[in-house]
């Protein structure tokens, strides 16, 4: 009997300590701040003009207006005054801001109509206005023009459902600069901030081993991980 | 320290030495009463403490009785939906000081949405990522983005080698191409199959949606998705008041609360009204194509019929409605003429 009551007494004492533990944890839960601190990335600032929908660039309309010096002027305001002499070696006194970077297409009058500077020249056909530039481009860029007609090249904005509203199919010059049609590289918007992967390299050249998406950079030309990291590439 | 024994059963009187104390209840002494009442008080206090996190609900507008009692989206009738929209509108107005134009937009008949993306044209500028964030009221801090743009080394489509942390002065890099990944709106979606509460499902126009009021935040769908397309609100999302897009719908871009999943819905509040998604309208290169694949003249149908097309992780059998394609010619290589014969 004595041994049994001693055993029960020990259980009893242990029971009190459990109860005490509950009480302590209860006090702690009430006293501590309500929420655990969650590591939260700071918001990145993206200006509205950086994500503006619509055409990539302002294309000349029909009739074209350009800013020569200070005034917006029609092409014919000047070009009716001057003779349209085709001389490729003649130095330019106007339009010196235009850099022609269009491959072998390196003369103004390949595209601009010789007699009416407000039109674009089409071989063997009547010249077209600047808002029909795709017809000019199509003379050389046949496959791209075919894709553009199908809608697999270029950009359509507005409504995909024509019964609900208008859709605008952008023409070549609303994306490409006709004098330098290849896209120039642009600055990218900020990348994702994934806190759990640790500090990310900012130059793009540092290798972050913590980041599984950057481990490919450790792979050398032979398809092997570099030896200091000791991991074989299967 | 000598502590008395709780259940005293040594004697035939049930541990009662004095008859007066045994009148109320056998075995109850003053000491045992104090013990038991202390233990009971402690237990109640411990239970109260364990419920302490519920205090957070008090100053949060994420919880309301009407939201708690709200039916599943598919069981709601017109009145139920009107009540839910009114509640959400009130919550949004309280949180962001703006009265939203919130609707429940149903799918259109005879429409199945498909997206196509031209890998030859994408330059990795991430405009689509941030246009999507602005359009769909995603949390700015912590950051939630539906689109990932992977910078891929040329010559492989192994997305394990992609890097979405590229920080360059300018893009594109000549040694890489860029592959944006977002929800593929699969015809056989694994995320829908794993949801234990049917909070996510596929609509007749092919868009997989989430009822944010029904989601329990178990993140099974996030684990099931082979395209990393689902995002979880680990903490309360924050959006600056001046950045809220008031054009909202129940199933897409209404503000979410902590503990629910969210994902790309092809901007269904725009696309079900005939408009193009936000990521497409912002793309500076026209790499993105969207439309109704059942319409033979749509741009996406033309892409599928005339271009070389592939889907990501075809072998997992998800049947994506998001297609990647490419052109026969490569503008980046053309931009760097090598022999002057460009």
In words, what does this structure look like?
The complex is a heterodimer of chains A (234) and B (342). With 234 residues, chain A is mainly alpha-helical. Chain A has a domain at 54-174. Helices cover 21% and strands 6% of the residues of chain A. In chain A, the strands form two sheets. Chain A has a two-stranded antiparallel sheet with strand order 1-2. A two-stranded antiparallel sheet of chain A has the order 3-4. In chain A, a hairpin with a 2-residue loop joins strand 1 (65-68) and strand 2. The longest helix of chain A has 30 residues, at 2-31. Chain B is α+β, with helices and mostly antiparallel strands. Chain B contains eleven helices and twelve strands. Chain B is elongated. Chain B starts with 29 loop residues before the first helix and ends in a 7-residue tail after the last helix. Classes of the chains: A mainly alpha (234), B alpha+beta (342). Chains A and B meet through helix 1, helix 4 and strand 3 of A and helix 1, helix 5, strand 3, helix 9 and strand 10 of B.
Briefly say what this structure is.
Chain A is mainly alpha-helical and 234 residues long. Chain A has helices spanning 2-31, 75-79, 133-137, 142-150, and strands at residues 65-68, 71-74, 156-158, 167-169.
CATH class of the domain at 113-335 in chain B: Alpha Beta
Task: Count the E strands of chain B.
Answer: 12
Q: What would you call the structural class of chain A?
A: mainly alpha
- Alpha-carbon distance between the termini of chain B? 97 Å
**SSE sequence of chain B, one letter per element:** HHHHEEHEEHEEHEEEHHEHEEH
Examine the secondary-structure arrangement and name the CATH architecture of the domain at 113-335 in chain B.
2-Layer Sandwich
* Strand ordering within the main sheet of chain A: 1-2
Q: Distance between termini of chain A? A: 70 Å
Structural class of chain B: alpha+beta
> Gyration radius of chain B, to the nearest Å?
29 Å
Label the overall shape of chain B: elongated
E-strand count of chain A: 4
């Amino acid at each position: 009997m004595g041994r049994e009551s001693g055993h029960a007494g020990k259980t009893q004492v242990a029971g009190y300590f459990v109860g005490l533990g509950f009480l302590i944890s209860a006090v702690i839960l009430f006293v501590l701040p309500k929420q655990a601190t969650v590591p939260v990335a700071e918001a990145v600032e993206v200006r509205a003009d950086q994500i503006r929908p619509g055409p990539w660039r302002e294309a000349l309309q029909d009739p074209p207006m350009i800013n020569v010096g200070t005034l917006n002027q029609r092409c014919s305001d000047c070009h009716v005054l001057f003779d349209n002499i085709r001389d490729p070696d003649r130095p330019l006194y106007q339009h010196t801001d235009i850099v022609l970077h269009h491959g072998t297409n390196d003369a103004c009058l390949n595209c601009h109509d010789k007699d009416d500077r407000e039109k674009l020249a089409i071989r063997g056909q009547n010249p077209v206005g600047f808002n029909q530039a795709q017809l000019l481009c199509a003379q050389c860029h046949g496959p791209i023009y075919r894709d553009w007609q199908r809608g697999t090249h270029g950009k359509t904005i507005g409504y995909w459902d024509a019964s609900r509203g208008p859709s605008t199919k952008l023409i070549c010059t609303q994306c490409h600069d006709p004098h330098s049609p290849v896209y120039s590289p642009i600055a990218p918007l900020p990348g994702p901030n994934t806190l759990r992967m640790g500090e990310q390299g900012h130059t793009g050249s540092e290798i972050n081993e913590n980041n599984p998406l950057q481990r490919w950079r450790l792979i050398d030309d032979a398809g092997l991980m570099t030896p200091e990291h000791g991991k074989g590439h299967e | 320290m000598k502590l008395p024994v709780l259940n005293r059963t040594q004697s035939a009187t049930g541990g009662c030495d004095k008859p007066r104390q045994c009148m109320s209840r056998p075995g109850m002494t003053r000491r045992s009463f104090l013990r038991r009442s202390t233990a009971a008080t402690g237990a109640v206090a411990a239970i109260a403490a364990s419920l302490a996190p519920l205090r957070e609900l008090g100053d949060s507008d994420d919880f309301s009785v009407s939201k708690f009692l709200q039916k599943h989206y598919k069981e709601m009738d017109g009145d139920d939906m009107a009540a839910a929209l009114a509640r959400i509108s009130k919550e949004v107005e309280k949180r962001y000081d703006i009265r939203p134009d919130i609707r429940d937009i149903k799918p259109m008949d005879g429409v199945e949405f498909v997206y196509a993306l031209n890998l030859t044209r994408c330059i990795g500028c991430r405009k689509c990522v941030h246009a999507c964030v602005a359009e769909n009221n995603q949390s700015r801090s912590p950051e939630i983005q539906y689109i990932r743009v992977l910078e891929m080394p040329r010559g492989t489509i192994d997305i394990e080698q992609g890097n979405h942390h590229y920080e360059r002065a300018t893009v594109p890099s000549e040694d890489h191409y860029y592959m944006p990944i977002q929800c593929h709106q699969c015809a056989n979606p694994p995320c829908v199959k794993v949801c234990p509460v049917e909070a996510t499902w596929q609509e007749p126009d092919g868009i997989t949606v989430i009822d944010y009021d029904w989601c329990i935040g178990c993140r099974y769908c996030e684990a099931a998705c082979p395209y990393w397309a689902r995002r979880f609100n680990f903490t309360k999302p924050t959006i600056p008041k001046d950045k809220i897009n008031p054009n909202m719908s129940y199933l897409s871009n209404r503000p979410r609360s902590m503990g629910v999943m969210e994902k790309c819905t092809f901007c269904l509040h725009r696309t079900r009204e005939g408009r193009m998604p936000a990521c497409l309208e912002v793309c500076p290169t026209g790499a993105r194509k969207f439309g109704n694949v059942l319409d033979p003249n749509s741009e996406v149908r033309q892409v599928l019929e005339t271009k070389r097309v592939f889907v990501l992780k075809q072998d997992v059998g998800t049947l994506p409605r998001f297609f990647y394609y490419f052109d026969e010619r490569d503008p980046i290589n053309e931009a760097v003429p090598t022999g002057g014969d460009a």
